[in-house]
Amino acid sequence: MLDVVAFIYIQNRKVLVVRSHDKDRFYFTGGKRQPGESDVQVIYREVKEEIDAEVDLFSLNHLDSFEAAAHGHGEGKSVKMVCYTGLIKGQIKISSEIKEYKWILSDEMAICAPATQIAINKLKERDLID
Description:
Elements: E1 2-8, E2 10-11, E3 14-20, E4 29-32, H1 39-51, E5 54-69, E6 78-89, E7 98-104, H2 114-125
Parallel strand pairs: 1-6
Antiparallel strand pairs: 1-4, 2-3, 3-7, 5-6
């Protein structure tokens, strides 16, 4: 099972998703935990690496954890994704890790990986996005 921490950034009732160069689906900003890293450390590092911004650590709020098939990792591989919402400081900039980013509504989630889709459904249920 992949251990992933995701940062969910919402603006104007849309959610930010990113796609790296080697992927065909979109994900939340975030990634695999390195040995010894806390959730907050993963989020801080990944947001800086992927969208060249800083997370407002005081704004972080645990949303939920989700398990799903790990997209692009072969049959039988799953992912546990711990999700936090929050705010960033600065503007979003594409880094060398990211090919593109989009702001999407819940009805556009078909472009996302399975775990991201599950989390987007939860955001919609909680009336955080349209």
